[in-house]
From TrEMBL:
The lineage of its organism: Bacteria, Bacillati, Bacillota, Clostridia, Lachnospirales. GO terms for cellular component: plasma membrane. The chain crosses the membrane at residues 21-41, 53-74, 156-172, 237-264. InterPro entries: AAA+_ATPase, ABC1_TM_dom, ABC1_TM_sf, ABC_transporter-like_ATP-bd, ABC_transporter-like_CS, P-loop_NTPase, Type_1_exporter. It comes from Vallitalea guaymasensis. Coiled coil: none annotated. This is ABC transporter ATP-binding protein.
Length: 577
């Protein structure tokens, strides 16, 4: 993990080196000031060299000015370095999230991802900047002050060193506690975010059930847990600060007491003690500094750990070595003994054999839960088949580049998702480089052009978050226009007309028929009247494929399809088929 963290410094080597050099110079100045002061007080003053003494003080002032410049560089550019690294990490995480497959999103809550993207990475800036700089600066200061004290008065120095193991023990112990605490805080805030995301996306539902209070309760539960986790973390942080502060105060007392004793005995003079005390503080400063930033450090590091956890999840579906592009697709699709399950204990598809000839339409019908949607999702490799294989024009889809495979398939499903943005943006999603003419042609084909032109802003109308201002049928037609623009040789229509009223359905049906012309199509429809003309109809239930044939053949065979069809014709659908 540390290796990964360090790798983020690499693109910003220059900033890092400047930061480190300035930190080094600051430490050098801080270490030399006590020595210089001691020299001035000891050697210049007694010789009545006031002029030199005054010049000396001016020189110190100059030194402090220079130090301020270095400090500015460290504080400003150092943080800039952190910001750059945070930016890079967020970019990489987003890219990685784009690559993860359906299985990952099936089991991950959006809020948890948001939390990592926003909260966890937020503190990385501090860690990235202060981590190495503090370590480096503190180390130099510690070593420098250590030898300076030893050199000045070894007895007094030893008295100070006795405290070090104690300090270190306390710091490590308390630090571990804090680390655990802040990790817990991160988990809890992720839960709060997840709940927030769910409640806000479902706000219309909770309002329709007048369940706002229930939502409040659910939210409060997580919020309280978050509060409790912070209580613990801050308690440990306070114990840490207080403990460190107390130990250093005692240390100062010891130095003054023991130093005073040495002065009385005549083995040390008062100027030495003054300089020594300055060194003790130069020695304690890095320790205090570390203690101040331990919290940031812990937060940042746990944040980075959580970032790494996500980054290490392998995308399940990716190009295999030697994967090829799909060229000149005719669109012959074959399922050979395909078996698939979402989990270990239940097979959704078992030994499925299907063939859709290029340019033909195959309709899938059957009870809900029979695996129709699942079957559709296997063709663009949203999920990987467990056994058997699917081929397009004789090529195993696993040997085709994912991007190439998916760009040849158009999918229209029941729940349409529109991105925040304009209608134009949403249709153009089918082909981002399409011309205005093609955009309009696609909209016309999808029978949505007239509606769009009737809007005050036309194609530039904002659809609002989740396209809430459009009706189901309008959204559906926008999604169909999107696929017209994409113009793929293979088409999958998964209950594209199910949730619509009759009039819209006729319009959409017309658009879909136009769309499937000349393409290999796989159509799932609830209403059987819409698939009568399919070249082949396949009845699929939880037990697998039950019937195959044309509408007329299936009616004649008096099986499941015939029962279903008659039932719909009469206006009711039986529970059992
Ligand atoms: P259909 O489209 O015919 O109604 P589905 O393919 O949606 O059927 O579902 C088939 C079975 O797989 C159902 O039992 C459903 O609960 C299950 N299922 C569907 N999607 C998932 C998923 N993402 N994770 C786990 N199980 C799923
Ligand atoms: Mg379905």
């Amino acid at each position: 993990m540390l290796k990964r963290f360090i790798s983020y410094y690499k693109p910003h080597k220059k900033l890092f080196i400047i930061d480190m050099i300035c930190a080094f110079l600051i430490a050098s100045i801080d270490l030399s000031v006590p020595m210089l002061s001691r020299y001035a007080l000891n050697d210049l003053l007694p010789k009545n060299q006031f002029r030199t003494f005054f010049l000396f003080i001016l020189m110190l002032l100059g030194l402090y000015l220079i130090r301020s410049v270095f400090q500015y560089i460290v504080d400003f550019w150092g943080h800039i370095l952190g910001v750059r690294m945070e930016y890079d990490m967020r970019r990489d995480l987003f890219k990685h999230l784009q690559s993860l497959s359906f299985r990952f999103y099936d089991k991950t809550r959006t809020g948890h991802i948001m939390s990592r993207m926003v909260n966890d990475l937020n503190e990385i800036t501090e860690l990235a900047h202060h981590g190495p700089e503090d370590l480096f600066l503190s180390l130099i200061m510690l070593i420098g002050a250590f030898f300076a004290m030893l050199f000045m008065e070894w007895r007094l120095a030893l008295a100070v060193y006795i405290f070090i193991p104690f300090l270190v023990w306390f710091a490590i112990k308390q630090r571990t506690k804090m680390s655990r605490g802040f990790k817990n805080v991160k988990k809890k805030i992720a839960n709060v975010n997840a709940q927030l995301e769910s409640s806000i996306s479902g706000i219309r539902v909770s309002k329709s059930f007048a369940n706002e209070e229930h939502e409040m309760e659910k939210f409060t539960f997580g919020n309280k847990e978050f509060r409790a986790s912070k209580d613990v973390a801050y308690k440990n942080m306070a114990i840490f600060s207080v403990g460190m502060g107390f130990i250093t105060k005692i240390l100062n007392l010891v130095v003054i007491g023991f130093g005073g004793f040495l002065i009385m005995k005549g083995t040390m003079d008062i100027m030495d003690l003054l300089a020594f005390i300055m060194y003790v503080n130069a020695f304690l400063q890095p320790i205090r500094r570390l203690s101040n930033f331990v919290q940031q450090f812990e937060s940042g590091m746990t944040g980075f750990e959580r970032f790494t956890e996500l980054m290490e999840i392998e995308p399940l579906i990716k190009d295999k070595l030697g994967a090829v592009d799909l060229k000149n697709v005719t669109g012959n699709i074959d399922f050979n003994n395909v078996t698939f399950s979402y989990n270990d204990h239940e097979k959704v598809l078992n030994n499925i054999n299907l063939n859709i000839n290029a340019g033909r339409t195959l309709a899938l019908v059957g009870p809900s839960g029979g695996g129709k949607t699942t079957l559709c999702h296997l063709i663009p490799r949203f999920y990987e088949v467990d056994e058997g294989m699917i081929t397009i024009d004789g090529k195993n889809i696993k040997d085709i580049k994912v991007k190439s495979l998916r760009s040849n398939i158009g999918l229209v499903s029941q729940d349409v998702f529109l991105f925040a943005g304009t209608i134009k943006d949403n249709i153009m999603y089918g082909d981002i480089s399409a011309s205005e003419e093609r955009l309009i042609e696609a909209a016309k084909n999808a029978e949505i052009h007239d509606f769009i032109m009737g809007l005050p802003d036309g194609y530039d109308t904002n659809v609002g978050e989740r396209g809430i201002r459009l009706s189901g049928g309008q959204k559906q037609r926008i999604s169909i226009a999107r696929v017209f623009l994409k113009n793929p040789p293979i088409l999958i229509l998964d209950e594209a007309t199910s949730a619509l009223d009759n009039e819209t359905e006729i319009k959409i049906q017309r658009a879909l028929e136009k769309l499937s012309k000349g393409r290999t199509s796989l159509v799932i429809a609830h209403r059987l009247s819409t698939i009568k003309n399919a070249d082949e109809i396949v009845v699929i239930t939880e037990e697998g494929i039950k019937e195959k044939g044309t509408h007329e053949q299936l009616l004649a065979s008096e099986g499941i399809y015939e029962k279903l069809y008659k039932a719909q014709f009469k206006g009711y659908i039986p529970d059992q088929i």
